[in-house]
Design brief:
Helices cover about 35% and strands about 20% of the residues. The chain is an alpha/beta fold. Strands 1, 2, 3, 4, 5, 6, 7, 8 and 9 form a nine-stranded mixed beta sheet that branches. α7 runs parallel beside α9 and α9 runs antiparallel to α10. The longest helix has 17 residues. The protein is globular. The termini are far apart.
Length: about 260
């Protein structure tokens, strides 16, 4: 990337203090076959250890942003980074996941091919952080209509696989603190019907599973009412059956109860 020129892709990485796997994540970005990128690293609290790890990237390709208050949360961290992203595409990535070398290249090519596309996910593969054991794939429908219908049932998308046009996120209202522990799902629902959403049927991200992981202990049922409203609103925008969307949400609630995520 030439100095002073905006990159094509901004990779937005929110980061809590002492993010032990951050260096691996950043190196996976450095190894991308598509090299017109910048990393916008959002520190949710000052941390010299995270700053040291950021130094593995060329200084002109990483920008560090601080949240207004330490421990503001993942939604506030992503929102703090979004205005700093100079690329016309933004790739989300958590500070412990790994991108396969072709991730950015394949997603950029798909956006170039489809001007109406606003959000593009990929498949991912889970792995155990301690042993390295393969824990299997996480897949979602690739075609837009099938993906939308799946999202009205549950969150089939891994946030670290998603690339968006930033104007689509702004139109949808950014990430919301009110969507406690499901801020990504809430945003996907608000994007549906405002822009085309799809997925590449390839495993382009490795999703790390480790002890104490936020998403494993999350209790998301307090946000059930908010998600229900957004599912019904998305169904209306898409011209889908609202009663069916209500039934899908009740099924989702049942799954959360079984999994003790209330």
């Amino acid at each position: 990337m030439s100095a002073g020129r905006a990159p094509r892709v901004s990779v937005l990485i929110p980061c809590a203090p002492r993010q032990h796997y951050l260096e691996e994540t950043l190196l996976s970005i450095q190894k991308q076959t598509f090299q017109d990128w910048e990393v916008v690293l959002v520190l949710d609290g000052e941390c010299e250890e995270n700053r040291r790890m950021a130094a593995v990237l060329p200084a002109d390709q990483v920008r560090i942003v601080l949240t207004a208050r330490p421990r503001s949360g993942i939604a506030a961290a992503r929102n703090a980074g979004l205005p700093e992203c100079r690329g016309d595409l933004v790739a989300f990535c958590d500070g412990d996941d790994l991108c396969e070398p072709g991730r950015l290249a394949q997603q950029v090519a798909e956006f170039d091919r489809r001007p109406a596309l606003g959000m593009l996910a990929t498949w991912s593969r889970r792995f155990d952080s301690d042993s390295g054991a393969d824990l299997g794939p996480r897949r979602c429908p690739a075609e837009s209509d099938a993906l939308a219908r799946k999202l009205l049932l549950f969150n089939a998308v891994t946030v670290s696989t998603v690339m968006v046009r930033p104007e689509v996120v702004r139109e949808a209202g950014d990430f919301r603190d009110a969507a406690v522990q499901c801020e990504d799902y809430d945003l996907w629902l608000r994007i549906l019907g405002r822009a085309e959403a799809a997925a590449l049927p390839e495993e382009l991200v490795r999703y790390r599973v480790h002890e104490g992981q936020f998403s494993h202990r999350a209790k998301i049922m307090p946000s059930s009412g908010l998600l229900r409203r957004e599912k019904l609103a998305a169904a209306r925008r898409l011209g889908y059956s609202v009663p069916v969307a209500r039934m899908k949400h009740l099924a989702w609630v049942g799954v959360q109860l079984v999994n003790r995520r209330w």
